[in-house]
Amino acid sequence: MSKVRVHNFAVSLDGYGAGADQSMEQPFGHADGRLMSWFMGTRSFHAMQGQEGGSTGVDESFASAWGPGIGVEIMGRNKFGPQRGPWTDDDWIGWWGDEPPFHTPVVVLTHHPREPLALEGTTFHFVDAAPREALAEARALAPDTDVRIGGGVETVREFLEADLIDHLHVAVVPIVLGRGEQLWTGLERVEERFDIETTASPSGVTHLVFTRK
Amino acid sequence: MSKVRVHNFAVSLDGYGAGADQSMEQPFGHADGRLMSWFMGTRSFHAMQGQEGGSTGVDESFASAWGPGIGVEIMGRNKFGPQRGPWTDDDWIGWWGDEPPFHTPVVVLTHHPREPLALEGTTFHFVDAAPREALAEARALAPDTDVRIGGGVETVREFLEADLIDHLHVAVVPIVLGRGEQLWTGLERVEERFDIETTASPSGVTHLVFTRK
């Protein structure tokens, strides 16, 4: 049975999954690289960048689970780019350049649908749909594979609220961001729907895996 | 040199150190025992209750660090009891009965000072003071020993804001409380003043130890 999975989703001690003030220059807002530095050190991230090396310990064992079994990703528009409202810059092809790291279809949730964007190995489909409908569209694009919910914060939260997540990997980073987008808002007692496994990394990050009961 | 220490301070994934709606019947508010269940299973907690048994693993190794070296505790009034405003119930002697578990002087921060309350092994001193002054009073009561900041949330936060904490043990509990008192509010980038060590427990709790740089 096809699972819906979230991987490598970092939150601060105060529950923020993204900083404030996202912009072209600061894709992560004022959080800069602080939420993802544990990930950027791993072999998996290095490989995504076409680089050798990287760490091979606890953080890598979680980072590397991102790809296997996944046939399609769903992401929010804010992960695709910093624009809001109607599309005004047709040259924008996402943060990742000509060859995005996904190598699957990607469903981008937006209130402003447009034609698909086909890049090397990855096609972006722009869809105005609630979580359940978006999931059906994603599964139609890649039958019998798992679906990754790629973020951002609002997208993960909406899929959790709709009880559509089977596997949620959250990396709790020991920093206090103070501002930004909260993951857990509206999700009181969400843990009761999951078994939870906790693993500490020497990087200081705690990996929590929520598996639906 | 006398250190200022916080032990066994539990917060939820969304950063709440106490639930909403504290009352006589619910000392922890709507959080009930959920923030402290990892602690209540330990040998140290059992011993505080005059009971045998209890767990002896990771959680116990943190729980048991609560006492050694400590000569005095500072707590907020909300930890002492659920009353607010001027004292109206002189019979209230705290949540703990005739023999509180502290066995040291305890400084209770309140805007409504009153005479000290001497119980078996523990005397409560009621003091209207800012963190730095309260710390001086506590040290005068027990020179050359460490001072424990016993909570609640507001008290720990105020001492962190004033940069008076040397050792902070936070237990991150994998629950979403949704409401209550936030520990981290106003403490953006507080982690930069500390070295942090992370330990996962089989209970699902993550123990973070912040040691001042």
UniProtKB/TrEMBL annotation, chains A, B:
Residues 8-187 form the Bacterial bifunctional deaminase-reductase C-terminal domain. SUPFAM superfamilies: Dihydrofolate reductase-like. Pfam families: RibD_C. Gene3D superfamilies: Dihydrofolate Reductase, subunit A. It comes from the Bacteria. This is Dihydrofolate reductase family protein.
